[in-house]
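User: Can you predict the 3D structure of procollagen-proline 4-dioxygenase? Sequence below.
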Amino acid sequence: MRVLLLLHCALLTTVVCASKQHGFSTAVVRLENLLLFESNLVDKIRQHMSDADSVREDIKRYVDDFEANILHPGFDDLAYHVQHPVGAYRLVKRLSQTDPGVLTHARLLTGVVYGDAVIKTTELPTEEDLRMSALALIRLQDIYHLDMRSLTQGQLVMLARQSDGTVVKQKRITREEPAFSLDAEDTVYIGDIAYNEEEYLNAVLWYLVTLDLLRGREQVDITDDPADDSGLGRVDVLIKLGDTLTKLRQHQRALPFYRDALRMGPENQVIKSKVVEAERQATLQGNVTLKMAKLLKGSIPYQEDYENLCYHSVLRNQPPSSRLSCTYDRTRPELYLSPARREVLHEKNPEIALYHDVISDEEAAMVRALAFEELERSPVVSKHGKVFHSDVRVSETGWLHDNTTDVISKLSRRVGYITGLNTEYPSAESFQVVNYGLGGLYVPHVDYFEETQLVKHVNRPGKRILTFLLYLSEVELGGATVFPQINLIVPAVKNGALMFRDMKRSGEFEPLSMHAGCPVLIGSKWIANKWILDRGNEFKRPCGLTPDE
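Assistant: Sure. Here are the predicted structure tokens for procollagen-proline 4-dioxygenase:
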């Protein structure tokens, strides 16, 4: 998993990812819009084909490819196609490998446009989008313990380990239809991506399922035919498995794969040398088979706790704690007739509450629409204030000022009524609206900035004392907010809002507010953050009587 290889945003100082400001893999909404455009385009092409005497063969092939990959009998939910990780991967793969000239010709043929602009090469998924889509599948399979064979058939089935060590299929979490499938060419590519990212254990899993898929193809004899009819070489996959296990110092386990490859190509000197070296290394190890455990890099704070909480957020589909209390909050006159519905999740250090029905469907839709034009790749900030893009945060961000529209201004005042704090600039920041990408996540982090980071943020008028996080969409699976240090899971409740303290009343930061956004399994996750600052709130939030308050 990619995030295992990167330091947390508070620690990283030098690693910088692609400078691309947005992409089809970093915001699901872009895939939704692209597929809607493509569906309209294909409808126009079909109409043109019925009226015209002749149509270019590549245009016909494009329509056939769309129908074979997108349309499913009895299932017309286009949004679900791109909100499902396997469906989204297939779409990115297909369009990243489609000749842009075909789409340009089709657009000119039918007069269909993408938004207000002509289709351009830059408006199609790229190889980088495909790589990040593969990383998303690796991440999701790893964190949510998905059954590999079910995943290749487009079904998400979670595995669990029993007390005796037996792994069983614990929970099926997807619909019966549609069944988006991955073939051997997909799984070996994903394995290669995992290998290149030095995620060798994950690479082994994807190469093994590749061999499984190759064996399942009809009339393919593994002992006689080193390659199947698609051109994917079995020998190559066997060597990849041997090489990956060698990276894990699993020389005894690598030997059978090297020997199988040698049996198919007995004259291959490269394979012979690999067999000899594996045998030598296995002997040096004293024929001891090392346990293939997950290798935790320790680069992400509370990584194991974070991943376990994300896993259980989907497995249980509920918070782990039952010690909750709910109240109607009428602390201000504006809340008398319409009180805030407050669910206390953690009483103090830090104070965490979930508010229900804070925003309406219409308001949430307007916030999403306004933010779409502003979306860019979400950055992270290092301990020393350096801003960069990283795979530890897969999403896009747009900022909406309070005076953008009356709806945004009204929403900002509503946050003020609920929190009892001043939400006008310079006492609060603008709304940060975020749409997560394919398998989108944000690893454990804190929202407050330390002094070394504030130096680089000269336009920030104060320190963050409170986070108010609005959930603007339904998330079918995944996407929970978790607090790994206090073992708390908060599901993404549509139209709800999560509030927690970033700073104690004493002025000290609240390190237990460290939180993370779990990877999105199915859905398009939209949130809006409102950060309230200390400046201008000194009398609304006075110091406590003890340093810990």
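The two ends are 38 Å apart (CA to CA). DSSP finds 16 helices and 19 strands in the chain.
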